[in-house]
Design brief:
Elements (H helix, E strand, L loop, with lengths): L5 H4 L5 H14 L5 E2 L11 H13 L11 H14 L9 E4 L1 H13 L5 E6 L5 H7 L3 E6 L19 E7 L11 H13 L3 E5 L24 E6 L12 E4 L2 H14 L5 H12 L3 H23 L12 E5 L4 H12 L1 E2 L1 E2 L8 E5 L4 H13 L1
Parallel strand pairs: 1-10, 3-4, 3-5, 5-6, 6-7
Antiparallel strand pairs: 2-8, 7-8, 9-12, 11-12
This protein binds 4'-deoxy-4'-aminopyridoxal-5'-phosphate and glutamic acid.
Length: 376
């Protein structure tokens, strides 16, 4: 076979997905493996959301839709943003995508030219860098403050002549940290002073514990330069539905819509009706799941500390980020081999020496996993 694309060959597979695949394979082979490796709510999608999708299917919503998404949904998202996130959004500043991941990819395609640099704050989720590189851009990594996982003045030193975008993710996957007002102010100042775009991935906004989520676009002068990414996977336990969205200035949305038209056309039509019901229905289900994640966090973090591990703040999302002595890849391998507990090594998030432990699983699994970790 002739050689394949060098650009794609140079990109690593998604560590989060690969490790969870490996855990699933072990389970199929009969190994009693506990997977704390993937960030996926273990709850079922709430019934009223499923019912709305089924009704849409029965009604015949099985055809092509407008490429930015069904108008009822883009309108509902614009309303939600204007009501909850502290900045105003019009319907034509919204695009519905196949998951938040697709919104991130399309945003990179829409904004970056070859050679443009995106600044990524580490530890960072696994897919930002690949999306930048698929779009032909390059990446500069900059660490968040040790211990607090907030932004400090050193961020300014990382801005170079090719920097065009800063990627922000709060609440954070993998650290669980929630960026405070001061951190967001620093980012906003740098974006305004250096005429940078920001991509603000807020997919975990509903999963915060005792802290306040602040949207970057709500800060002065930021709505005009921020692509806010969000979706239904985490808040409504809808990972398999593949519905996310971006809110951004019209010229950016228009570019993203072209990418969408030529690749996926739009997300699945009847799935969008489920997402609409998620936004329009009672939000009690979101709060019930948030409370359950908080209960698990309140068990897991002290349990890991009792075993002698230091952990990151864990103020949001559903991850414990655990400091380990030694090679995180080797330790993750040994936990899987000897304890049958799957976790994701920090190296995957550009922060060696840490392990990400997802608590999006039952309390029983968490208790069993802690017992097994204690034994190894
Ligand atoms: N951003 C972050 C930080 C995530 O953890 C995930 C999880 N998959 C995504 C984006 C993508 O979510 P979606 O399932 O909506 O594509
Ligand atoms: N975002 C989740 C995680 O980090 C799901 C897998 C993925 O899309 O990376 O585990």
């Amino acid at each position: 076979m002739r050689s394949l694309s060098e650009k794609v060959a140079a990109i690593a597979p998604s560590a989060t997905i690969e490790i969870s695949n490996a855990a699933k394979r072990m389970a199929q082979e009969g190994v009693d493996v506990i997977s704390l490796s993937i960030g996926e709510p273990d709850f079922d999608t709430p019934a009223h959301i499923k019912d709305a999708c089924i009704e849409a299917l029965r009604r015949g919503e099985t055809h092509y839709a407008p490429s930015a998404g069904i108008p009822a949904l883009t309108g509902a998202i614009a309303g939600k943003i204007s009501r909850e996130n502290g900045f105003a959004a019009e319907q034509d500043e919204v695009i519905v995508t196949c998951g938040a991941k697709d919104a991130i990819y399309e945003a990179m395609e829409a904004v970056l030219n070859p050679g443009d640099e995106a600044l990524i704050l580490d530890p960072a989720w696994v897919s930002y860098e690949p999306c930048v590189r698929f779009a032909g851009g390059s990446v500069r990594h900059h660490p968040l403050s040790v211990g607090t996982f907030q932004v400090d003045d050193t961020l300014l030193e990382a801005v170079g002549p090719r920097t065009k975008m800063i990627v922000v993710n709060s609440p954070s996957n993998p650290s669980g940290a929630v960026l405070d007002w001061g951190s967001l102010q620093l980012i906003a100042d740098i974006c305004r002073d250096h005429d940078l775009f920001a991509l603000s991935d807020e997919i975990y906004e509903k999963l915060v514990y005792g802290k306040e989520h602040i949207s970057l676009a709500s800060l002065d002068g930021m709505a005009e330069r921020t692509i806010t990414v969000n979706g239904f996977s985490k808040a409504y336990a809808m990972t398999g539905w593949r519905i996310g969205y971006a809110v951004a200035p019209r010229p950016i949305i228009r570019q993203m819509e072209k990418v969408q038209q030529h690749t996926i056309s739009h997300p699945t039509t009847f799935a969008m009706f489920g997402a609409l019901a998620a936004l329009q229905g009672s939000q009690d289900c979101v709060e019930a799941m948030r409370r359950e994640f908080e209960r698990r966090r309140d068990y897991l973090i002290p349990a890991l500390r009792d075993l002698g591990y230091a952990t990151a703040p864990a103020d949001g999302a559903f991850y414990a980020y655990v400091k380990v002595d030694g090679d995180d890849m080797a330790i993750a391998r040994s936990w899987l081999r000897d304890a049958h507990v799957a976790v994701t090594p920090g190296t995957a998030f550009h922060s060696p020496g840490w392990l990400r432990v997802s608590y999006a699983t039952s309390m029983e699994n968490l208790e069993e996993a802690v017992g097994r970790i204690a034994r190894v």
